[in-house]
TrEMBL record:
Pfam families: BD-FAE. Residues 60-253 form the BD-FAE-like domain. Keywords: Hydrolase. Coiled coil: none annotated. This is Acetyl esterase/lipase. PANTHER family: AB HYDROLASE SUPERFAMILY PROTEIN C4A8.06C (PTHR48081), PEPTIDASE S9 PROLYL OLIGOPEPTIDASE CATALYTIC DOMAIN-CONTAINING PROTEIN (PTHR48081:SF6).
Amino acid sequence: MSGSGFEVLRGALLAMTLTLAGSAEGQGPAPAPAPQPLWAGAAPGALGTEAVDIPTLTAFLPTSNPTKTAVIVAPGGGYLNLSMKKEGTDIAAWLNARGIAAFVLKYRLGPRYHNPVELQDAQRAIRTVRAHAAEYGVATDHIGMWGFSAGGHLAATAGTQFDAGKADASDAIDRQSSRPDFLVLAYPVITLEPPYMHAGSRKYLLGDDATPELAASMSAEKHVTKETPPAFLYATYDDKTVPVMNSVLFYEAMVKAGAPAEMHLYKQGPHGTGLAAGFPLLKGWPDVLAKWLAGNGWMDPAAAANVTTP
């Protein structure tokens, strides 16, 4: 990053490092890190200067990161709201406890913003972490994205519609690839076409008058190739909000393309379970995820084996 945006972000990162150190020395818990705008000035396509017009990224850094892995977390909310705690900061805490850096993304939402703004925000987040991997203590090829529900659609779209960056861009961030190195998709929206689409996500991402062609262009299962990053999927058969077939369609597309994928489907469980601590039949799914991450080199195997989801 260059210019004022980097100075603000670097200052916040230094402050967070100092407060984490203070916490480790028994001075009390560190305050939550401050969200940082993804662009130093107005974001592309911004319609104003209110909080809803400013996409942000909040860095949560662990005390140790042996695999130098980072995960950008995209909360769900049907492209209308964001579940910033259950599918945001709670996920960051889970990742930090297992030695992984987390970056919670606040992306712009409908009905004020429509496609392609949301994808631009996600791509900018990936590029930002990659451009400043050294400052965050992460590796440029260990940057994944974890999305829930509509945030899962955003992550799946980032994993199927990416670019290598612009080598001649004046902004160093724009020179970076927007491809995530792996995907975690929790009860994700995948398709925006009948019969399995989530109507609210389609409405708030594409607008009321989306054509079938536009819906197809933003249905992630239609854009999987062998270059799509490895993916882990979790969903429940009983989900009445986002049909489980969304996950099945993406997994099937991954298998057909020869892209690595692992899917875990559970019979019982509603939509929006997060880490599923309150669901005895589901609460083990994050531990299965931890083993997948460790097996691919994105989590310390000791952390995956010894830390259990509450």
